[in-house]
Design a protein that fits this description.
Length: 83
Amino acid sequence: MNARDAIIGKVRKAIADIEGDGDADQAIDWVYGQPTAMPDVIERFAERSRDYDAQVVEVGADGLAQAITDALTAFQVKSVVTP
């Protein structure tokens, strides 16, 4: 069995208990152009970043410049290009 067959087998196993033909489009109640509620978007970003072993440092606006300086110093960055 090659990798493709293994992946397709896992997908088929995962969706085996779904009722219906699986190919039919399902209507989704959605209004385009409206904002999507995203409570705690910053906490969600931090959590997901930690999932990838990123170091997350949470600071207020008044501590941002120092946090950037500390990170650059810790990684021994000698120059930075900003937009």
